[in-house]
Amino acid sequence: MKATRILKRLPLHLLIITLAVIWLAPSLGLLVSSFRPRQDLLSSGWWTALVTPSYWSKFTLANYREVLTQQGMGRAFLNSFIITVPTTLLTLAIAALAAYALAWMNFRGRQFLLMMVIGLIVIPLQMTLIPVLRMFNVLKLSGSFPGIWLAHAGYGLPLMIYLLRNFFGALPRELFESAFIDGATPFRAFVKLVLPLSVPVLASAGIFQFLWVWNDLLVALVYLGGFEEVAPLTLKLSLLVGSRGQDWHLLTAAAFISMIVPMIVFLSLQRYFVRGILAGAVKG
Amino acid sequence: MAEVRLNEVTKKFGNFTAVDRVTLEVHDGEFVVLVGPSGCGKTTSLRMVAGLEDITAGDIYIGERRVNDVPPKDRDIAMVFQNYALYPHMDVYNNMAFGLKLRKVPKKEIERRVHSAAELLGIKEKLKAKPRELSGGQRQRVALGRAIVRDPKVFLFDEPLSNLDAKLRVRMRAELAELHLRLKTTTVYVTHDQVEAMTLGQRVAVMKDGVVMQYDKPQTIYDRPANMFVAGFIGSPAMNFLEARLISEDGRLYVQGKGFKLLVPEERASDGLRASVGRDVVFGIRPEDIRTPEMVHGETAGRTFSGKVRVREPLGDEQIIYADVAGDEIVAKLDPRLEIEPGQDLTFVAMMERLHIFDKETERAIA
């Protein structure tokens, strides 16, 4: 009985494992390569290093040291945080308030505003690059952190608002009515009811935005390009490919540095992530 | 505490009139039940008293104050919802304390009130529990506690027992009645369950299509329903309705229909009834007012009719008989020890002093 079940599932499992290997192999290669000295990297494949135990003592952190200190990746790493964290918080704060208003407050034009927000989801951000950059130049926002915070928040908000509104809208009406009878103002109800009850969806929305901003190159390139001191990891990495294209030992280390944070964020919060996406998609 | 008054209150949703010029007075400390089938406007009426729905027309007073434009939190009411509406992320204590905290009641006082309410409701051990850890009955008690601690002028209940299983519902019903005896807070209670209405209400308002059909003491509503709707809605099994005509022979009044001709007792032959002689009416008689000759002592002349038994439902303390009387079905509640078989021809006795006569056109009670 049990054996037939395993047999039945075997093809599926094989497929999943194959896909996982195909997906993981480059990342693993990246990781292994980033610990190897330059000459070795150019002379033999990363898998030979992995299967030769006698080689393992030659693994080194020197690549990381060089990238972080001499190539400015350390500064870029910090910049990525300075860009990503405030952006995520700003987006969440605005999106949560807007979503609450769109879900639970009665005002004229609510439906119209909601349609606008949903409509904005489908507008490609590339269309906005030139006009926004021009505006930023006038306002002296290009090349500055506040500028990129605003840009990223703007690009992230429509989807975030939509996601949160669906979740908030599915909260039972009686909870609010009960709170209002108990004496709560709409803002009180938001702080005391909506926020605590929406932790999963807020977390997943936060992760979404965090990963998207952290991995973004295009927006950073447009609004921060040419300002070395505020460049995030992605921008720095692309510059590195241009200037040190042959130095695989540095590129692999740099690439891994830029990957590590999203991996940690995703792995530690994936529970919320899955739950939050489902909560937003299926009502209730 | 305070009285609640609805004066010509109307609520429209677009073109649909949910509540139509309802006038209702709830005395200080009284327990009033609004009952009716779903969609009759009872919940909407309650929500207007709570301030959760705007009023299209008319006035609502709580105490001396007109509250049409007063927000829910300033009406000094507490409401218990069908699905309890407990705050899922707060423990029982905080669920009850929430309203008091918002009203800046001193901490010591909050503690005292929550504990005494928990004591009263028997949920003292559960103060630290989250709603999801509680059974349905306990949740309902917490919802009650949340209302009690506020010590409001008026309690509003919206079908509070309908999510509970049958046994628990009966028990909570008794507890609610006891609670009201103790607290004597003015209460408006909405339900679709006629048993709840009869047992809990000091007065009951039967509603249909947004209109109050009758507003009176439960026994009065049962004994003297104002129209066919109320007569059919209150009482289980429902009252029998048979088409008939009032006739007068030798100065005596009879109800005559297909398969029966029954004498109207002298004391029930009112002027109104006499005035309706010759007209088409509906003869109403409750199942328990139909008996068999074995169950009746004394004269049965002019009170009998016969029918063919179709179905028998023995319930232990009584049996329900469905019988065919000249093509119409009647339901009778009989002594369970009478041996009756389906297919049997049976003679019934109508307790004519308990008859009801309704106008066929207007469906209003004539007698």
The CATH architecture of the largest domain in chain A comes to: Orthogonal Bundle
Q: What would you report as the Rg of chain A, rounded to the nearest angstrom?
A: 24 Å
* Domain count of chain A: 2
Instruction: Give the topology string of chain A: H per helix, E per strand.
Output: HHHHHHHHHHHHHH
Structural class of chain A: mainly alpha
Assembly status: heterodimer
Rg of chain B, alpha carbons: 25 Å
SSE-based structural type of chain B: alpha+beta
Biggest contact: A-B, 16 and 22 residues
Share in β-strands of chain A: under 5%
Please estimate the helix content of chain A.
Answer: over 70%
Could you tell me the number of beta strands of chain A? 0
**Residue runs with pLDDT of under 50 for 5 or more positions of chain A:** 280-284
Shape of chain A: globular
Q: Which descriptors apply to this entry?
A:
heterodimer, A: 284 residues, mainly alpha, MetI-like fold, 2 domains, 80% helix, 0% strand, globular, disordered C terminus, B: 367 residues, alpha+beta, 6-stranded mixed sheet, 9 helices, 20 strands, elongated
Give a description of the structure.
- The complex is a heterodimer of chains A (284) and B (367).
- Chain A is mostly helical.
- Chain A folds into two domains: 59 residues, no CATH class; 210 residues, MetI-like (MetI-like fold, Orthogonal Bundle).
- Chain A contains 14 helices and no strands.
- Chain A is globular and about 75 Å long.
- Chain B is α+β, with helices and mostly antiparallel strands.
- Chain B contains nine helices and 20 strands.
- In chain B, strands 6-7-8-3-9-10 form a six-stranded mixed beta sheet, sandwiched between helices. Chain B has a five-stranded antiparallel beta sheet with strand order 13-12-11-14-20. Chain B has a five-stranded antiparallel beta sheet with strand order 15-19-16-17-18, with no helix packed on it.
- In chain B, a hairpin with a 2-residue loop joins strand 17 and strand 18.
- The longest helix of chain B is centred in the middle third of the chain and has 18 residues.
- Chain B is elongated and about 80 Å long.
- The model of chain B has no long low-confidence stretch (mean pLDDT 93).
- At the A-B interface, helix 9 and helix 10 of A face strand 6 and helix 2 of B.
